[in-house]
Amino acid sequence: METITATYAHENDDWTITVSGRGEERTAKAPGIIAARDRADQLVDELAPDGRPTVVHLLNGSALEFTSSYMAARLTLPDIEPLEVPPSGSSKPAAAVAPAAAKPQLPPSKQLPKEVEDRKAEETPDVPTSKPTVSPRA
Fold it and tell me: Which portions of the chain have biased composition (kind: Basic and acidic residues) (predicted)?
């Protein structure tokens, strides 16, 4: 069985993936190493639709460097703001206590006009914040 090689190159914010094997070569771009790895799988499927061949992933000619970079990206948590927990006995719903900065900000081109946001806020029903009780199994 022939080995298929997936070679990764980091260019600015994008990754270029070149998959070669079985006398053919495919190239694609992806926005990050995780997306690049997924795209490599798609390219491998194009080269070997009849099965799952052995694939060697290389970054700068090294499988170890690829694995290290890929796993670091997979295991790194995104930066998020800490969750504010209301004091016990508080009757305010959690959404009312959360800071305004926690609301995701869209780019201006994707934001709704203020009138639409105001109307959506008026039409949004109050959602109960109590948790359902679960009885123990017998």
Answer: 112-123
| Structural domains counted in the chain | 1
Q: Which two tokens stand for residue 62?
A: 């090294």
Q: Which residues pair with 17 in a beta bridge?
A: 8, 28
Query: Do residues 94 and 102 lie in contact, with contact meaning Cβ atoms separated by under 8 Å?
Result: no
Kindly calculate the radius of gyration of the chain based on its CA atoms and give it in whole angstroms.
24
- For residue 27, tell me if it sits in a domain: yes
Extract the tokens encoding 54. Answer: 């052995």
Does the pTM surpass 0.70? The reply is: no
> For 96-119, what is each residue's pLDDT tens digit?
444 555 555 555 555 556 665 666
pLDDT in tens, 22-47: 899 999 999 999 999 999 999 999 99
